[in-house]
Amino acid sequence: MKAYVDDATCIGCETCPKVCPEVFHMTDEGIAHAIDGKIPEDVQGKAEQAAESCPVEAIDLGD
Ligand code: F3S
Questions:
Q1: Ligand 1 centroid to 2 CA: how many Å?
Q2: Which atom of ligand 1 is closest in space to residue 59's alpha carbon?
Q3: Hey, whose CA ends up nearest to atom 2 of ligand 1?
Q4: Which of 4, 7, 13 for mutating ligand 1's site (highest number of atoms within 8 Å of CB)?
């Protein structure tokens, strides 16, 4: 599983790095960015939780 943040949609609410800091961080531009590689299995649940928590649905989880 991989995570992608749509940087045009993210409003910088900072929820995703709070829910799952292993995968998401805030950039200097104030939007979220996901790690490039595969999400480690033990944090996939938290990544899904982060995606569900995003108020503007900017996070996509895919292969
Ligand atoms: Fe942005 Fe959504 Fe995360 S608005 S900071 S991608 S929770």
A1: 16
A2: 6
A3: 54
A4: 13
How far is residue 46's CA from residue 15's CA, in Å, rounded to a whole number? Answer: 12
CATH entry, 2-62, from 3.40.1160.10, 3.40.30.10, 3.30.70.20, 3.90.1640.10? 3.30.70.20
Cα of 25 vs centre of ligand 1, distance in Å, is 10
- Residues 18-50: pLDDT tens digits? 999 999 999 999 999 999 999 999 999 999 999
